[in-house]
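User: Could you check the structure of this?
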Amino acid sequence: MEIKLETVLFVLIVGIVAATTTVKLSDNRLKQETMTKELEFYDTKFIEVDKIQMRANLFSTYGLRDNGILMLHNIIYHTHNIEQLIADKGTYKGDILFLDGNVKLKEKKGAVYTTQHANYHQKSEILKVTSPFIVTMDKNIFKGNSLIYYGKTKEMQARTIDATVYTIDK
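Assistant: Sure, the predicted structure tokens are below.
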């Protein structure tokens, strides 16, 4: 039995072509994440206004917008009802500002709310505290696990509270 060299070479070439088209070689080192950073800024003040007045004021030492999400550091925020809303870090998604690290809200002529994590809904002016908190009003102290503060009416709802309240003697 005799096999021609052309036949052997043809079968080898067809086998090599079939193997190279079906096997996918990839090098993971070449794949790199593409940069999606849209905006980066330092020591910036944002002022929100409408046709009549200034609605809000926000200062941040560093900010980065990536994929439509704004991440901020060392936030100082205030409105007509809020004297200061301070946090180490914040993430803006839509109208909600997610606050993390040393969050403190000072009302104008009112209470001081202190916690580590909270969400501030800008349009409805509602602060949802999602971690243990302390509220001080003069000598009065309230501690608890979760809290909702309504900025428009200056009311709060809290769960599992421990309170020290001073009353006026008559």
